[in-house]
């Protein structure tokens, strides 16, 4: 039998398996609900399509969790326990951290893209990278370097782009922010400038390949069964063939940057790659580490800012208060750029950003895998190997957690006597919490404040009629609004 015949046979077997698998899944939908979920409310909603009542699957989970007395449900077929209970979140991320690692399942899904990078490993490998990243990201020089990059990108590219858009051009703000964040994180991580936010809005090969790699890797995580994407990868067909090509492009470009940097010498450079080169000699490992930071630093910042500006476009009175606060601290000249010290004197702006991420967190859910049998504080039994998910999107909408006004965009909930007053990271796990709390949290907040002030003080950003509808999200690792966020820009 020749190679072509063998490939056809494998394709036939794969197709047959897929048909049988989906037929079995459909059959399960008509069986009793205790096959699916231990939450009573699911008796009503798991027999019908969630899409009839909810535009986003995260809203469906929010509904189910809000009706559960413990704010925890278990999807039996998927072996997935989902919780919006702050006590459970603290238990996972802090009290029993060692029992809830990322796990091999998650690492396998993202291994082709992230390899042994910090967001895809556990144990000693994670501890080593965590310590190394903590030292670098916590230094004053690194934060100043990042701040300078962001400020230049705003002044040289973002503001000129919006000046052009102010001439009655509709812009997709989500796309603009993703380009902005990609330029920043590539310059910070690799010392490489993709130039995605130039006036002609080009997309570099690296950006296109990185986008496709991220999208297709996320689709693996959302696959009904890991066997499907593993067979496709084995046969090198469909989305797995695309993913292989995209990751190859990312790796080739990253490897070339590393090669050139070693050849030129790196001791005088301030980017993350150069800082890590003194500690890591394995170039493949080095590439994995830096690509992980590109993934984390690009999509999360863009998603957070998209949610923030969408909420502001629907709450003009809050935008006016941000403007008043900034004028009081910085003066009336809109061309002035904020300093670190000035941003610390704007508690209302910080409250607005925290409140927007409460309702629209960049990462809507996060999963771990139970290393051994356990029992949550709410009494839920967790069997070894179970996927355990905490759901920041749902948590921000829990009346049991945030009160009867939980669906309102109300920044004042973060202020006490005019000062910003943070909540527990386990009630608000937008930046995770416990041992894995986000190392780039402060840098991300500074970047978001810088963008917010630079745009609000210069321009009036108004969503189009389409933008006022509730956002619908694409499936993925990070929140992405389907159709983008179209806006009109006018000078103040």
TrEMBL record:
Amino-acid positions noted as binding heme in the UniProt annotation, renumbered to this chain: 438
Keywords: Heme, Iron, Membrane, Metal-binding, Oxidoreductase, Transmembrane, Transmembrane helix
Domain of life: Eukaryota
Annotated GO biological process: isoquinoline alkaloid biosynthetic process
Keyword Metal-binding: yes
InterPro entries: Cyt_P450, Cyt_P450_E_grp-I, Cyt_P450_sf
Membrane-spanning segments: 9-31
Cofactors: heme
Gene Ontology molecular function, alphabetical: heme binding; iron ion binding; monooxygenase activity; oxidoreductase activity, acting on paired donors, with incorporation or reduction of molecular oxygen
Coiled coil: none
Keyword set includes Zinc-finger: no
Listed SUPFAM superfamilies: Cytochrome P450
The family this protein is said to belong to: Belongs to the cytochrome P450 family.
Name of the protein described by the UniProt record: Cytochrome P450
Lineage: Eukaryota, Viridiplantae, Streptophyta, Embryophyta, Tracheophyta
